Amino acid sequence: MPLSPHEVDVFEDSRARLEAIAYRLLGSASDAEDAVQDTFLRWQATDRERIETPEAWLTKVLTNLCLNQLTSARARRETYVGTWLPEPVLASDRMLGPLDTAEQRESVSMAVLTLMERLSANERVVYVLREAFGYSHGEIAEILDLTESNCQQIYRRAKQHVAGDRARGEVDGAAARKIVEEFLAAAVSGETERLVQLLAGDATSIGDGGGKIPARTTPIIGAVAVARFLRGLFHPTPAKRDLVGGSPALYVEVVNGGPAVVVVLGDRVVGVMSLELTAEGIAAIRVQVNPDKLVRVTREWSASGHGEPLLGAW
Description:
By secondary structure, this protein is an alpha+beta fold.
């Protein structure tokens, strides 16, 4: 059934919200785009005159598509090469959705997106819709075809799982850039001790190359071990430059609401190093170099303005 201009507008008015929900649910910008497109196709195919509340209908369709994707994604990740990390998204990207509250900002952080991989599909949906988008338990129950009390239990369980692993003091945004600048200066200098001083004692470093770019397949744990790894990682060699196709520039940017080092060659983002900052120091470093997960961030990088690099040529 052809869409009227009004019906197209109804969907487009919901697109940004649907993208933001799907991204939080899937941890993948490309998968989120696919889920929203599939939702549009179902909107196009349905009898729209019978839909009283388009926003609710679109949210339910999208959520169920994401539930199916979460189930299949878990199976795919069993054969994923190395560690799976979420796809990074720049601060300027509308896919991050609402960031007005602490809960909304945290729900899209690399740390929480990674932790949500441990939740069941229903736990993840209930947590995201309640925590980031303020849906009532009654509304969520209708979307998932569950009872309201069941949704409340699922939410409590999901929140405990996420909060239990987030018991750290956060660093305010004003200090974030300074810490990242110090981190980058220390990493490039090759001085291990300077790096150790910036890291939390139990700091971890995790990389995702997806089997396409060399990356450590297991986490590195402990400040000294992480500092030594970073010293080697940031030491430029002809082989490393050949791997990325030249001598990239290093920028400090905000990614998923947190500070990050963005590695750029020409107009192409070839790596994103997200830093999790706490009162104890840098608690986690998540390095995304899988080119499949850098497509959208490259597109957004090329379309948006950015400042001067901290290091013009590595």
